[in-house]
Design a protein that fits this description.
Number of strands: 0
Radius of gyration: 19 Å
Strand content: under 5%
Mean pLDDT: 95
Distance between the termini: 56 Å
Helix content: 55-70%
Number of helices: 14
Order of helices and strands: HHHHHHHHHHHHHH
Shape: globular
C-alpha cells in the first residue's frame, strides 16, 4: 500500500504492514480448503466468508508469515489490523487479533479507537471476545483513565461494544475493579440479547475464581434483576 493509498483509506503507512500483508495473503490463500470453508461460515452464522483453515494450520502458517520480522510499533499494529479487516475472509481477522494480542504492550491509549472499530466491524464473538480481554483490557490496565471510556461503552447501543465493556476485566483477577464489574452487570441486567446476558454470567464466573464470596453475595442481593442464563453462568463453578 502506497503512502497515498494509506492516507486515502485512513490506514497509517507502514512498510512492516506491507511486508506482513504480502506474506499473509501469499501464505493463506494457497492453503484454502473450500470444503471446510462452507461449514465454518455456517457455524459462525455467515458473519464472513472463510478460507477453510483449521486453527492449527492457520497458526502454523502465521508463524511463517512473521518469522524474522522486527517488533512492530503502534502504527504498524494499527496498519496491520485495519488492513486485515479490509480483507473479507475471517482468517485474516483472526491473524490480526492474534498479532494484537502478541504486541498489545506497544499500543498506547490512542489505540482504543482502533480497537473499537475492529469490535464494531464484522462483529461476532470469535473476534470481539479476544479483543475485549487481551487488547482493550490491556489498554485499560495500562491507563486507568480509560475506565471512563468503559463507562461509556457499557451503555452503548452496539451490543458488542457493551459486551466488550463487560469482558475487558476477564484477566484481571485480584486487580479487578469490583465496583465497576458489578455496576456494569447491573446496568445491562435487563438486556434482551443472548450475548450480553451470557457476558454478564461469564465475567462474574471468571471473577468468582478470585473471590467467590463476593459474587455469591452480589447475586444474593441482586439475582432477581438478572436473566436465569446470567445467574446460571455466574454460579456454574461455585454453587448458589
Amino acid at each position: 500500500m502506497s503512502v497515498t493509498d494509506a492516507v486515502a483509506t485512513g490506514v497509517p503507512f507502514s512498510t512492516l504492514a506491507d511486508t506482513v500483508l504480502e506474506r499473509l495473503t501469499a501464505t493463506y490463500a494457497p492453503a484454502a480448503d473450500p470444503e471446510r470453508a462452507a461449514p465454518m461460515r455456517a457455524y459462525m452464522k455467515d458473519v464472513a466468508p472463510f478460507l477453510g483453515l483449521t486453527t492449527p494450520v492457520r497458526r502454523a502458517l502465521s508463524r511463517t508469515v512473521v518469522a524474522g520480522l522486527p517488533r512492530p510499533d503502534e502504527g504498524d499494529c494499527t496498519a496491520i489490523a485495519l488492513r486485515c479487516w479490509q480483507l473479507p475472509e475471517r482468517e485474516y481477522h483472526y491473524f490480526a487479533v492474534d498479532y494484537l494480542r502478541r504486541h498489545a504492550r506497544v499500543c498506547s491509549t490512542g489505540f482504543l479507537p482502533v480497537a473499537r472499530h475492529l469490535i464494531a466491524t464484522t462483529s461476532w464473538w470469535d473476534t470481539v471476545d479476544l479483543l475485549a480481554a487481551h487488547v482493550v483490557g490491556a489498554l485499560v490496565a495500562a491507563d486507568p483513565a480509560l475506565k471512563a471510556d468503559m463507562d461509556a461503552w457499557i451503555v452503548d447501543d452496539d451490543l458488542w461494544i457493551a459486551r466488550t465493556a463487560l469482558l475487558h476485566q476477564l484477566r484481571n483477577k485480584e486487580r479487578t475493579d469490583t465496583e465497576r464489574l458489578f455496576t456494569y452487570c447491573l446496568r445491562q441486567s435487563g438486556h434482551s440479547d443472548f450475548f450480553v446476558r451470557k457476558a454478564i454470567g461469564w465475567c462474574l464466573r471468571e471473577y468468582a475464581k478470585t473471590d467467590p464470596e463476593a459474587v455469591r453475595a452480589f447475586l444474593a442481593r441482586e439475582r432477581g434483576r438478572f436473566a436465569p442464563l446470567s445467574v446460571r453462568e455466574a454460579l456454574k463453578n461455585i454453587g448458589a
